Amino acid sequence: RMNRLVVNGKHSLKKESFYILIVTEGVGRIKSDKESFNVKFGDKFLIPAKTNTIDIETSSSLEMILAMPVK
Question: What HEC string does 20-41 produce?
């Protein structure tokens, strides 16, 4: 299952399982339980299922494809 996610400012993801994030537009920052990454167009991330929180921040707009397992 895949969803388009557009963030303007801040957004927190509710964890269901593991996620694959693909940045399709913009720049920003992704913060997990213990790490923080600057992100830009073309970046790809695998967020493990054991990660409790994912916070996304941008000063403009950040667009991503969010892929997750089918329920």
Answer: EEEEEEEEEEEECCCCEEEEEC
